[in-house]
Fold:
Amino acid sequence: MKDKRTYDKLKEHGEDMTHENESKITIDPNYKKNDEDRGLGNLTLLTEQYKADLFKYQQRESEWLKTKNQLDGTKAIVMEMAGTIRQIHGENENLKGEISRLQEEIQLLEMQTKK
Structure:
C-alpha cells in the first residue's frame, strides 16, 4: 500500500489529484422563480451583483482617499502654522526685551537731561 499519492505517469502531472479546488453552486430547493428573476445560479446575476458591490467599494475607497488627502493637507497646514506661531512668539519675546531696554535707556536719558 502506498503512503503518499504520487504520479504514476508523466501525463498525470498537470492534473489535480486532490480535487480540492472544485466548487459547486447550490440552489435553494425552496426558491420560487419569478418572471423578473433569473435564478440564484445564473452567472449574469452573480456578475451584476459583483459589479454593483465593486462599484460601491470603489466609491467608498475614493471617498476615503479624498478624506485622507484632506487630512494630510490639514496636518501640513497645522504644522506650518505651529512653526510660524513659535517663530512669532520668539520675535515677540525679543521685541519685549528690546522695548524694556529702550525704556530703561529713555529713563537714563531723562535723568541726564534733568541734571
